[in-house]
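Incident log, structure service

09:12 report received: a user says their structure output differs between two submissions of the same chain.
09:20 pulled the input from the user's history:
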Amino acid sequence: MTDDAPRRLRVLAAMSGGVDSAVAAARAAEAGHDVTGVHLALSSNPKSFRTGARGCCTIEDSHDARRAADVIGIPFYVWDLAERFREDVVDDFIAEYEAGRTPNPCLRCNEKIKFAALLDKALALGFDAVCTGHYATVVLREDGTRELHRASDMAKDQSYVLGVLDDRQLAHAMFPLGDTLTTKAEIREEAARRGLFVAKKPDSHDICFIADGDTQGFLAKRLGTAPGDIVDESGNRLGTHEGAYGFTIGQRKGLRIGHPAADGKPRYVLDISPVDNTVTVGPAASLDVMALTAIRPRWCGRPPTAGPATYTAQLRAHGGETEVTAELIGDAELQVSFTEPVRGVAPGQAIVLYDGTRVVGSATIATTERAVRAEA
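09:34 re-ran on a clean worker, output below:
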């Protein structure tokens, strides 16, 4: 967020009530920026409280964020974006599962809420940047363009969930924790030194709007029961389910088939068909994917050059990298092939491409091509 020399910016710090966003806001203020804290009220039930370490958008969290802002010495506000969050994130989440896909609501929230609705409102009010506690780095190039890079500490890197940000959004993004080569324990120690009460607060886990972590129960309340069959790759009926939306590709637990496979090995979810409400299961080897097609690509800065090129790809928020060849077909379709087969690739999830540490961009997985499996 700097040109040739540092300058004082008007910064809106998104404060979730957790330790990372509090330390990020404190660092931005310490760097001399004019910082204002804001907590996003995203829950449709403002009286809800977190359960254990789950969730991040409750009254308890807003109180924690306010106390942190008071200690830092910055103004603080609560902005109600619950309706926008419900439409763009929660409703989309439900619709994707209903369609047999596996969405990532964190990417959707970054794309539609934190760096769209929040950023647009911030810019309209005269702010220069939105600051968050994500672990990633924005690099300003000599030609004035910006690049999104992995955090200095790969163990905490969160660039995957930021792979939806475009050049305009990167121009107004600030990630003060991105260059931190410290452990999370040291971030907590820094928070304690600064007098921030959230220094010992547990990290939030799972999906913020599903406080108890029961995704299947959350979906069942909204979609109802829809009994169907669980079948093997040959179409043989092995059991039943109460809703295909309750499964995801690669799932092993909770199948309740009732009897082991002929070879005695575990079975996994291979396919989810909302058309006939069928869930197909099979051996782990049948999960091997050699290629995929992804749609709705978004580029973090400059788009890739024409033709196939080699990148590394990340397929889930906490997954590792794998080498791929990717090519943009037209403007809306990305074709990707893997050097080695990968497993657990689910339509609806995001694939994020990297060139070294630079985030090239992301796209939503639409279809996969399974590896040809030799018959025993």
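09:41 both user submissions now match this output. Likely a transient worker issue. Closing.
09:42 reviewer note: The chain has a mean pLDDT of 89. The CA atoms of residues 232 and 281 lie 5 Å apart.
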